Amino acid sequence: MSLVSESDLGQQSDFGSAASDASPSDYVALLKPRVMSLSIFTAFAGMLMAPHPVHPMIGAIALLAIAVGAGASGALNMWYDSDIDRLMARTANRPIPAGRMARGEALAFGLVLSAFAVLTLGLAANWLAGGLLAFTIFYYVVVYTMWLKRSTPQNIVIGGAAGALPPMVGYAAAAGSLDLSSLLLFTLIFVWTPPHFWSLALVKAGDYGRAGVPMAPNVWGPDATRLQILLYSLLLAPIGALPWILGYAGPVYGAIACLGGLGMILGGWAVFSRREGDLARKTAMRNFGFSILYLFTLFAVLVVERLTTIWLGA
Length: 314
Hints:
Oligomer: single chain
Number of strands: 0
CATH topology of the largest domain: Tetracycline Repressor, domain 2
């Protein structure tokens, strides 16, 4: 049951017709730069997994298109979620709920960027990559934002597929096809998302409760969510090592994946076992921060290894 009142929705509808006071920084905020940077980075890693190096110009255009597509998804997400964003402390100052931008502007901005990104990637690289990018945008906006986010505590699990697709888009842009290595990177991000996001959700449960969003801690309860974080961390550790085990990554990646996987398990156990007071909140936030470091480090090592192989083979 949504906690958004009719008066809230009426006030929100005013944003659609109000004069815009949006600044360039507000349009940048619509793009969700941190999420965009992760999409670029993981797509670049996927691109490097291709059997043959992509032409630098095509690669640069493809990464630009993927970045724009990720930004378009963010803008459309903020357009649709502006009613609940104004009820949560961490999102209340976004351009639309803060009243600096009309909803229609964000919608138009996101749609134009989506079309530009998909057409650019299709024309510059290939239409498999362009189609995958279009599907990624659709999945994030329609499947996750419009449907799953407000209807099920599994929202971040099923919806996490959108955030896991950029490596496959990058691989497709370089190779014109898909293979197991790109699927491994997809699976890594997909399984990483729940323990990462639920660690934050434990701390921000009050925000989600006010907005009526059925996040796991609000529906299942904190203790059940902590168990899920631990279970997903146990699953994530071997998945993170699979690129090395199956020969797609080198020994440095393998060592870091094993150590990082152990760190995720220990972090998940700490979240599971520390359930009360300020220590529980700090532990959850620490696990949230470590999960970011874990994923970034794995992809960074993968990128360095692949670039070294390309340069030595040149």
